[in-house]
Sequence to fold (583 residues):
Amino acid sequence: MPAAFAVTSLHKRFRSRFGRSESVALDGVDLEVPRGEAFGLIGPNGAGKTTFIKCLLGIAHPDSGAVELLGHRPQDPRSRARVGYLPERLTLPGAWTPPAFLASVARLKGLRPDRPALEALLGRVGLSEALDRKIRGFSKGMRQRLGLAAALVGAPELLVLDEPTDGVDPLGRVEIRQLLAAELARGATLFINSHLLSETERICTRIGILSRGRLVRSGPLEALTAVQQRWRLRFAPDGPAASEALVSLGFEPGEGGAWEIDAPDPSALNRALDGARASGALLVELERASRDLEDVLTEVLAAGSA
Amino acid sequence: MRSIAVALDLLREAAARRWFLALGLALTGLLMVLLTSLRLEVVDGALAATRLFGQPLYHDIQAADVALRPVFRVASQVVFWGGLCFGVLSCADFAPALLSPGRIEHLLSLPVRRWELLAGTFLGVLALALSGAVYASAGLVLVLGAKTGVWTAWPVVSAALAAVAFGSIYAGMLAVTVWVRSAALSAAAGASLIVLGLLATHRVALLDLMGRGPGRALFAGLTAVVPPLGRLADAAGALASSGPLAPGGLVRLLAGTITFSAALLAVAVWRFDRRDF
Fold:
């Protein structure tokens, strides 16, 4: 599958105004995101996530490295015409109405503003009741929704969203997740930068962890959160197996009545299960033990600082 | 061309600003007052009539178009200098607003080239200045034309000259903003260019008063490139009042002013292209 974007050995340093000090924002980042994928970039504050997005879209100039955005350089308007971007803090023209703002975005994208289509887009992000209101009276959540609508103008192939659910209420987040799922189903590629790990987990299928300007971990969400040798099991609660017997076989009591066991390979797992069944336990559930993204991020950051 | 779209957006933004609404209302109010209260009596043929009936001649009676010349000259000066000062104050924050965090990132993510953004902002402000100056001068021409029967387009042409002069000032304001995003600094740059433009008008006389040294060299260098706004204003006044102009003088003045604007815009684009946001 062709890449939505590919970044090779990206370096970016920021110098203070008089060159007295400099900080490394990106330190040799390599990343390729295939088309049609939902990729989430996570990391602590100051890790370089927003700088990465800015270099990706040509808003900042990398010191070295290569960026290819939808088959072109980011400076090429042909690539940016197929991208929708929601910045972290979008400043909107307060005196305008939402349709006027979207019409301006459409014109700058080289499209003919189509009022019914723009109103339908505003309806998709939940702003159909605010079509005639001035933007200056909007709440933070409404501004975020309008920014998202602006990113969706022209049905872009790649959506780059910096904190898309920031300031949005929980119900609004569900709506935005559904909207992003629809965009994904349409064939769009999603690239999301969010500090809300649970949101990222629910939307993205691949995750990258950026720390101190380096991409320290990247891969499918399941692979990142899985614990390779650990399994979680649940036995029938009215089974005759005694806890002592299970403990003697290597099982450890987990949360909510579940059990966990370390098994380096399928044979070891099956030997342990045979022993449990022999002791009268009735297996009803078996899954690979996994952690959430927060655990993964904590582990990665702790390893990085050690 | 996306610059036109950027310029039109700037005009839409300006239409929502109180500054420009106030200017539009003030100009309209002034023209309405002139239209309803100005008492002008045109007495064409009066001189012949007095001669015919042997009455004493009133030598201060003039033809209407001649009588209106000083009016048009003063009006063109008001439009020129008033326009420059109002423009500097009211347009100082257009470029800083364009470069504000959260807005510039969004604009740069759209398929618009960086130079198109700057050119669009410049064109939008120029269109704003031109429309204000033309509205004021065309309104005055209409009012006086209706009252006196004298119709002339030259005051409108002279207003366009004021807009060209403001273009050179705004190019400097834009270039400064690309370095440091500040409306106050942008306005200060505009005010400084107006003062320098006035000094450049009297450059030769002022240089004669200065002793040799780096200060004189700096003054000579600065005033050599800045358009002499006083001479432009005089030319605008002469045009408005159908007065004499030095042959080729206006063309040279305009060429110099446009070159100055283009050079400052080129510097602004060069810097803007290299900046990170």
